[in-house]
Each structure stands twice: as structure tokens, then as C-alpha cells.
Amino acid sequence: MIASEGELRGLMRAALDGNGAAYRTLLDRLSRHLRAYYRGKLARIGRSQTEAEDLVQDTLLAIHTRQHTYDTGEPFTPWVQAIARYKLIDHLRRNRLSMADVPIEDAGEFEARDDHAGAESAHDLDRLLAGLPEKMQRAIRFVKLDGLSVAEAAQRCGMSEPAIKVSVHRGIKAMAAAIKQGKRR
């Protein structure tokens, strides 16, 4: 059974209020989602299920230690997804892999989520990136969105590492200016 955003959010709220049974149920539901997420991501690049299990445990530990940072007024699954994604990126970096090695069409994503805000944010980000030169777009996507190192991005873009750093810096600065200008209207 796939847990819904509402169920997971309710379990988290109850857990934060000290309900131990709700917390155990939450961790059980999350471990299923995380296991499917990591197995799907790692299997496509030929990595082991043992690595997926390690990531599940690392992520559950991170959720436990950071539970106080969860804002109960916000959707829960995007908060968990962010932690899971960062744990995956950290793991891939430690093993000299990148998010670009993991196919985007992965079906093992969390099923329970509120995509409305995420879709709007992705659309806004795409619009901001579209206003930049192609080299800046690629540099930002590789380094900031895909989690590649500057060296990896430089190699893929056919640019020097300093050029990647400058492109990322100037691109983000230009996007910030565009946001600021949009708020003035």
C-alpha cells in the first residue's frame, strides 16, 4: 500500500507530538518508499542493493536527527525527498558517480507527494534558466541541479573549470536579478 501525503504528514505530526507508535509506523512507511527509490536509482547504474539499504538507513537517521526542522504547515514528502536526494548525491560523490548517471525517467520516485508547488518551482526555474546563454544554463544544470563536480561539468561542457565557476556565479546572479525585477512589477 502506498502511503498518501496526508497519511505521512499526519504520522509525522503525531510523532513530533510524542506518539511513539505513529513514529514507528512513519519510519516503516518511509523505509518502503526510500528502499524502492534507492533501488530503482542505483539498479539503473549497476549498483548493489546493499548500497540502497545503506542509503535507506542513512536517510532515516537524517530524518530522525533533523525532524525538528520539519515545518508542520508544509507538505511532508517534499521535505523527505530533499533529504533522500541529498543523501543520494553525497553517496554518488563519495563513489565518484553523479546524478547525471542516474536516468531521469526513473519510476521509483515517491508516490505520495504534493506536486503542485514543485511543478510551479520547476517551471519558474526553467523560465529563469531559459533567459541565460546556453553555456550558463548547462553549467548551472550540471553543477547545481545534477550534483556534478566543477571538474565533471567542465569536461562535459568542454570548458575550463574556472569558466564553469564563472558561468555558474554569473548565471545565478542574473537569475537573482530577474527574480528581483519580477517582484518590483
In terms of topology, how is this protein built?
Blueprint: H1 5-16, H2 20-43, H3 49-66, H4 77-94, H5 115-130, H6 134-145, H7 150-157, H8 161-184
Protein name: RNA polymerase sigma-70 factor (ECF subfamily)
Domain RNA polymerase sigma-70 region: 35-96
Family: Belongs to the sigma-70 factor family. ECF subfamily.
Précis, in short:
The longest helix has 24 residues, at 20-43. 71% of the residues lie in helices and 0% in strands. With 185 residues, the chain is mostly helical.
Radius of gyration over all CA atoms, rounded: 18 Å
At the fourth level of CATH, the homologous superfamily of the largest domain is RNA polymerase sigma factor, region 2, helix turn helix motif
What is the domain total for the residues? 2
**What does the average pLDDT come to?**
81
The CATH topology name of the largest domain reads: Rna Polymerase Sigma Factor, Chain: A
| CATH C-level name of the largest domain | Mainly Alpha
Helical content (DSSP H or I, runs of 4+): over 70%
Approximate shape: globular
Sheet bearing the most strands, described? none
Structural class: mainly alpha
Ends apart, CA distance between termini:
47 Å
Q: What sequence of helices (H) and strands (E) makes up the elements? A: HHHHHHHH
CATH architecture of the largest domain: Orthogonal Bundle
How many H/I helices?
8
Report the strand count: 0
Strand content: under 5%
User: Which blocks of ≥5 consecutive residues have pLDDT under 50?
Assistant: 104-119
Keywords: DNA-binding, Sigma factor, Transcription, Transcription regulation
Organism: Methylobacterium persicinum
Pfam families: Sigma70_r2, Sigma70_r4_2
Protein name: RNA polymerase sigma-70 factor (ECF subfamily)
